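This part of the workshop introduces the protein records we will be handling. Getting from the letters to the tokens is the skill we practise here. An example says more than a description, so a record of this kind follows:
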Amino acid sequence: MQIVEPRFNKFLCAISVLMHEMKSKARVLGFCLLILILSCSPLFSQRIAQQGAWVIGGEGFESGTSMQQTHDGGYVMTGHTDSFGAGNSDVYVVKLTGSGHLQWTKTIGGRNHESGNSVCQTRGGGYVITGYTTSFGAGNADIYLVKLGSSGDLEWSRTIGGAGQDIGSSIHQTTDGGFIIGGMSASYSTGNPDAYVVKLDSSGDLEWSKTIGGAADDWCSSIRQTHDGGYVFTGATSSFGAGKSDVYVVKLDASGNLQWEKAIGGTDSDLGKSICQTLDGGYIITGNTKSFGAGYADVYVIRLNASGELLWTKTIGSKDWDSGNSIVQTRDGGFLIGGQTFSFGAGSYDFYVVRLNPAGDLEWTKTIGGSASDSGNSICQTSDGGYAVGGSTKSFGEGYADFFLVKLDADANSCEATNSGGITGSGGTISNTNSVVTSNRGSVSSGGSIGKGGTLNVLCQKR
């Protein structure tokens, strides 16, 4: 039997402890390497900032008109720029991550004027933008439709219109993979400009188009596909209603045939800016009213049932100008409005964010902005339960005006937001209208060169 001396026993014990420590350190090192690899992956890096404020632009003028949260938790914005691009102004498209990092920017246009008025991410991960162009097309201004890939590369563009002025204000992808555009047309109207609705297939080829209106000015500001496969839009009408202009709400079937239409307002000017279908099949609209409210103009909110009958109206604001520019229904059944206020805030105009409960009662308001003019034009509830509002700022940034994106957490806190106010009221009569609906084809062409440009300024950020 072999006897092991005590000193050799101590040596073996020391070796065992050392090997155990090395294994522990290896496990720690491996864990650190795993964290490093994950932090560089797209999934891990797409952490959403709970609060933040970001400014994007150049030394000239950038106006942000539309914003959407993307499938990856980031954000896409469109509008126009005269700091970059091929002409006087170009469509400007900006993509940010959820944590506020600038991924890419694109300019699209020709030697004259182009603007993006609405952006929508497609189910394939790309983007489609509508607005107008004076560089291409058949007339004074044509609807401009631009399709980008997921990295912002130009796939195709279309112009739609006639000899007059035609503008796209709102776009969404339809359930068949095509696109619906709402706007206005002076080329095919029965009187002055009419509301213009255009349906295209997934390749951007025209399927049908309709003009809807009367003898005076009528237009579409916002359009959505409805649960039944049809479409609903809001805007304004001077052809029908009780006052100078009324909120215009029109329901079409899947082929663009008129189902019903309403004019809502008072004796002064009332405008519809944004519409969405509610969880119960009805509709919620926001815009502004000079007929009712506490001041020169107030945020106007209108709730209709599925048949277009008026359920309630609300006005929110104070003594000066206040407007609702975008509305969504939140996951709890309430409503979130993004807009602009001159009654409250730090400057001439500020972002105005308004939260209503499902009955339309005011829960809270926020203002965001600086000493100059800032306008919130688009709003959404984010995947983390917070809120994002996009628009334009003259208070911050490098140039005369820049894109402005602000993220609020689920409790409506943001590093750039302050508590605000708002006097609530109601008002509005509803009128049936008698619009003329005309089918027309319009001429379709394409054009546009692509470029890039813009810097990101982080005003504040909190994860």
